[in-house]
Every structure is written in C-alpha cells, then in structure tokens.
Amino acid sequence: MSNYDLVVIGGGSGGVRAARIAAGHGAKVAICEEFRYGGTCVIRGCVPKKMMVYAAHYHEDFEDSRHYGWNTTVEGFDWPRLIENKDTEIDRLNGIYENLLSNAGVEVLYGTASLVDANTVKLGDQNLTADKILIATGGTPFLPNITGVEHAISSNEVFHLEEQPKSAIVVGGGYIAVEFAGIFQGIGTNTTLIYRGPQILRGFDNDIRNHLSGEIVKKGIDLRLETNIESIALDASGRKLVTLTDGTTQTVDCVLYATGRKPNVEALNLKNAGVELGPKGEIPVDKYSRTNIDSVFAVGDVTDRIALTPVATMEGHAFADTFFGNNERFADHTNVPSAVFSQPPIGSIGLGEEQAREEYANVDTYSSEFRILKHTITDNTERTLMKLVVDADTDVVIGAHMVGPDAAEIMQGIAIAVKAGAKKADFDATVGIHPSTAEEFCTMRTKDAK
Ligand code: NDP
Asked: What are the distances in angstroms from CA 302 to CA 6, 49, 166, 308, 335?
C-alpha cells in the first residue's frame, strides 16, 4: 500500500493548487520543492516583474504630473531599494504559500525529487510511495549556445542584480524580452532590444505588434529587428562587448537573454517510470493531465500547453477535483486571455486578425487608435489601440486586443464577454462608462477597411 494518495513534485502555482485542493478533498498529500514555494510566478516571474513594471512607469508619471500642476523633482532611481522591498514581499508570499499548504493538511517537503518508478518518488534518502504522482516542475530559461553566452543573464538573475545596469541589451521578442526592455528603459537604463524576426511578439495580432513596436521606440528603446547576437566577450573593465549579426558592436553593462523557456525535467529520471517526453522536452498529457503512464500526471509549464500561471492553477485544480473530489472535469484552454506588461501594456483574448482569417470565412475588424484623455494635457505622445475581431457570419466576437494603459485590467472584463460568446451587437448594446478608455470597446461602429 502507498504512503500517500498523491505526491506532487514542484511547489509552483499548478503544484500548490493541486496539492491543496486534493488534500481538501481528503487525500493524503505530500509536496516536494527544491527551491522556494511559490514557483516561477511568485519568486522570479510575474509578481516581482510586475513590481518592476510599476517602478519603471513612475518615470512617465512624474513627467505627466507636472502638467497636472505638481512641481515634482526626481532625484534618481534607487535600484537596491526596489530589490530589497520586492524581496521582502516575495519572502512574505513564500511564507503564505507554505502556510496555505500546511493549513490544508499537505506535508511540505524540501529537496530535489526524482522518480524511482511509476508510484515511487525519491527525495533525499526517503522513498515516498504514492497512488498518483503529479509533476509540476515548470520551466527554466533557455539560452542559445553562442560564444560568450556565459556573460549573459536570464530572467532568473535579473531580479537580483546588485546594481542597475546603465546600459543593457535584451535579446528576444516574446513576453519576457518586451517586458524587461520596458522596465530597463523606464528606470533609465539605456536599452537595446534585439529580435531575430521581422516584428516582436510573434503570434499576436499584427496591428497590435506594430503599434507596440512604434510605442516602445518612441519611449527610447533601440529596437533592432532581424538582428541577433553573434558573440559576447568581456572588455578590460568587465563590460560586455557584444557583436551583432549586422556586423556592429555594442558595449553594455548587462545582456539579458529572454529567448524562451524549456520544461524542467532533467532531474526527474522520468524514464524510470516510463514517462515519455515530447519533442521540446515537454511532458505530453491528455485533457485530464495524464501522461502515458496511468499513475503519473503533469500540469503547468512542464507540459508546454499554455505557459501562464492561471492556466497551471486551472489544470491543477481540475486534476485534483477529478481524481480526488469525485468531480470529473478538465481545464478549458480555449479563449485564455493574457497580458504583456510592456510599456504600454497589451491585453489580448481570442484570435488575432490574421489567425481569424485563416480559420473563418468572413471576418470583420473594428479598430480605434487614439490618445487617452489623461495624456491630452501632457506632452505624452503615447497612443492607444483597441481592436475587435468578429466572425461576420455569426456576429460573435472572436478576438479582442488592446495596447494602452490598464490593458490587463480592461481585458479581464472583456474576456468574460468573449468567453461567454458575446456578439458584436452585445458590445454595441452595452453602455460605456464615461469618460474611460475601456468604453471605446462599446463604441466602435465602423468596420475597418479590408
Ligand atoms: P517566448 O516564447 O514568449 O519568446 C521567446 C522569444 O525568443 C521569441 O521572440 C523567439 O523568437 C526568441 N528566440 C527563441 N530562440 C532564440 C534564439 N536562439 N535566438 C534569438 N531569439 C530566440 O518566451 P519568453 O521567454 O518571453 O516567455 C516564456 C513564456 O512565459 C511565454 O511564452 C509566456 O507564456 C510566459 N510569460 C508570460 C508573461 C505574462 O503573462 N505577462 C510574462 C512572461 C512570461 P521567435 O518568435 O522568432 O521564435
């Protein structure tokens, strides 16, 4: 007989949620974590990143405030103070996560866990036997193998830099690269963003990508498209001498690679249990998060479905309800909204126009591009873009996208409507809240020219 009903490997969003809910359903649960409870999101991802985004945005707020009558003098930016305050909050959240687990009756363990077989987890010199094993080990940054890449950092290290870099190169065109380029530029670091493709944020609606690209360039980011790093060397003072594929060189204090993440499976010894991996090293699972082995399950980034915290928690919760709560259900991966906390931010749900045109016969789009009210009496030239993508045959809104202040907050509400299958006519029938930016989603009446 097994010692546990469930052993969870990985104390991030997905693992913690699954462990707590399963224990709440009466299961005997242990969870193992090799670093700190909270996972990437809490410890070195979404939460500390958002604090840095707030920090970076003050720069513009101070400028704007002068036009609203404030006589502000800014005496510079104190990076160590931000890091210290951020760390205090992360410590608090780490404690909360552990308490949530213990209070739910989960046995909280530390160490690097691996599989002995399909029902046994090795943790140090202990063997934990379990009816079910859930792998929720997340992902880890991927850095390409270029000469001198050891002189670069990833998002793991950026949260602990002792000093603010005066200059930085950020490599990549995804969420993390665009967010950190905005953070660095906002706090006064001279920032270059290098992306190998023709436009940042591949996969998003093209108008949204182009709009954001224009805005970040206006804010001073040196955006180099269709460029990559060839090599990195150290100069005599320890700065990074970077040679780019266009033949130019730059010397900077920091090179941050944000070129994607890979599933964290190396230490798990999955083959001992016969668990198969997919082509990217991910653990393939069915809709109930079951691997090819009946007793082994996986949720979150390690499965490479949608790498977002709320998706991992949704998967973990559905797993626990199904197998320990007598409530069979699975995570729904359709119409998952997301935000890029760039400056300005993006909020998005559903299909971009290009994707919609591939999947639907007749697509209409409605867009509005404008300067928000707040900026009309400032020198801030930032412009906001909102866009709806509609299936012209059914009038259903199949995509909503925005670049502009509060995009994440606005899009969360819009996402409910889109998830519920709202039609464009429902958006039109909804009375706007005036004056707000969000009301624009209810007042777009003219179709875009095709
Ligand atoms: P992404 O997959 O979003 O982006 C990776 C970027 O790196 C792409 O632009 C990719 O280019 C580029 N790239 C990949 N390999 C190379 C290479 N060898 N040389 C140069 N460039 C390369 O990964 P991130 O690391 O930004 O984020 C990982 C995931 O974490 C995201 O996909 C997202 O799901 C999640 N996340 C979510 C956030 C949020 O919700 N706000 C914030 C941060 C992360 P190409 O497009 O050409 O492939």
From this structure: 18, 21, 35, 11, 21
The torsion region of residue 165 among left (phi > 0), alpha (psi -120 to 50) and beta comes to: beta
Atom of ligand 1 nearest to the CA of 200: 9
Catalytic site residue 434? yes
The rounded mean pLDDT for the chain is: 97
pLDDT band at residue 376 using 50, 70 and 90 as cut-offs: very high
User: In the prediction, which pLDDT does 134 show?
Assistant: 98
Q: Return the residue whose CA atom lies nearest to atom 22 of ligand 1.
A: 259
Structure tokens that stand for 154 in this block: 């990833």
On whether the pTM is more than 0.85, the answer is: yes
Within 6 Å (CB) of ligand 1, which residues are found?
144, 171-177, 179, 195-197, 202, 228, 258-261, 307-308, 338-341
Q: What is the length of the chain?
A: 450
Query: Residue 26 above 80 pLDDT?
Result: yes
- Closest among 185, 214, 274, 267 to 10, alpha carbons compared: 267
